[in-house]
Structure formats: C-alpha cells, structure tokens
Amino acid sequence: MRTFYAFLVTEELREDDPTTRLPRIHVPRKEARPFSPEQIEAMLTSGAYKRTRAMILLGYRQGFRVSQIARVHAHDIDVQAMRINTIGKGGKARRLPLHPVIAELADSMPQDTWWFPARNDPSRPMRSQSVTDLITKAKIRAGILDPLLTPHSLRHSFGTELVENGVDIRVVQELMTHEDLSTTQIYTRVSDRLKTAGIAALSPVPIPAHSGRAREVPPIAA
To answer: Would you call 210 a catalytic residue per the annotation?
Structure first.
C-alpha cells in the first residue's frame, strides 16, 4: 500500500501520501528450518544419483539457492584459487570461497559446460524447478516427510551450522550473499538441538527419598 501511494505522489496523481500517518506493522521474519546432519546424510545415501547428490552438496556446503545450483558452470569453479563464482539475488556477481567437498566433486563433474544442463537443450542450464523436484525426490526417498523442509532448507542448514560453529554474523552474511544483515539474523536464534544439548549438559541432581526434616515426637501426656 505504501508503495502504491508513493507512486501516485511521484507521478503527481496525488498531493499527499495518507500512509505516512499509519503505524508501521512489524512482520517477523520466518525462522530457519534446517535439515539435521543426519537427514542430509540420509538424502545422500538413499539412492540419489551423482547429479542430485551434487545439488544437495551445493546447497548444504555452499549455501546456494536452487536458482544458483541450476546455473553452476564448470568455468565458475577455480579449484586452484579455491573460489566459486555465482550470481546472487538481484543479478549481482559474487566470488565466494569454495568448500573442499565441492572442489573434490568438481573432478567428476562436466569440465567445460553446465554442471546440470537442460535435458532438451544441453547448451542451457536446467530450470530451477527441476532442481527443486530432484532434491525433493531425494528427500522423500530418504524418508523425510516434513513438508516444512524444502530444498531451500539446505541453505538454512548452511547458515545454521556456520552460526553454531561460532562464525561471525557478518561473515555469515557475506557467505550467504544477504544484502540486509537482518535477513541473516534468523540464524542467530538458538536451535532446538542446542537447547536440548544445553539442558543435557547440566549436572544431575540426586532426588532425596526423604525431606531430611527431623521427625517430631509428640509430647507425653502428664
């Protein structure tokens, strides 16, 4: 609504913007919904083909969105410099550190073309939806039926593990190619796994069988 009225004022179709008097509504950002390491392992070892495993690892260890996974080209990978080029949101080119597992994977992937070429036209990359479909099939094959866990959750796993391993939040922001730091902040919320581990770390307290209070003896009647 604010954008609409701002447009009207800019185009001189209105003299005032009534939305400036309205209170701003805070819309909380969604929580990160990562796969657990055990779920990732299950996806990688439940019959997924090499191509799909590569997609999963790009999401999990490079933090790539499905659109970025679909457009990985052999020329984007510089194993010598341990860097990978990608196009982030807004069409911005990024050069990021290459994770060792992706560097190892590069040896068995296409060396001079798209890693995931389109079936009908190998000169073009696969569609993002096709990447989504393949990862989703791997997820279901692994017995993961939670509808809230999606291919984008691989990226959430990437961000969550960075934060849990003590990586500075601004470094996480750069690795995830977030324009706004507030987007990265969702990964700073303490995960259920860490909460459970925190409780488990507390030393046990023995439960006494009795209160320890001395038993009162009633007075003897005279």
So the answer is: no
Predicted local distance difference test score (pLDDT) of residue 27 = 44
Mean pLDDT of the 174-194 span: 82
Which one is catalytic: 60, 61, 65, 139?
A: 65
65 is catalytic: yes
Residues 61, 99, 139, 155: which is the catalytic one? 155
Q: For residues 104 and 98, give the distance between their C-alpha atoms in angstroms, rounded to a whole number.
A: 10
Q: Is 187 a catalytic residue?
A: yes
Catalytic residue among 75, 89, 92, 189: 89
Which class is domain 37-190?
A: mainly alpha
Q: How far apart are CA 119 and CA 14, in angstroms?
A: 51
* Residue 99 designated active-site: no
> What is the helix (H) or strand (E) element at residue 113, kind and residue range?
none
- Is residue 155 flagged as an active site residue? yes
pLDDT, tens only, 110-154:
999 999 999 999 999 999 999 999 999 999 999 999 999 999 999
Phi-psi region of 28 (alpha: psi -120 to 50; beta: other; left: phi over 0): beta
> What are the structure tokens assigned to 26, written together?
């805070």
Write out the two tokens for 146. 């939670």
24-67: pLDDT as tens digits: 554 445 788 999 999 999 999 999 999 999 999 999 999 999 99
Say how far apart CA 79 and CA 145 lie, in whole Å: 36
Active site (annotated) includes residue 137? no
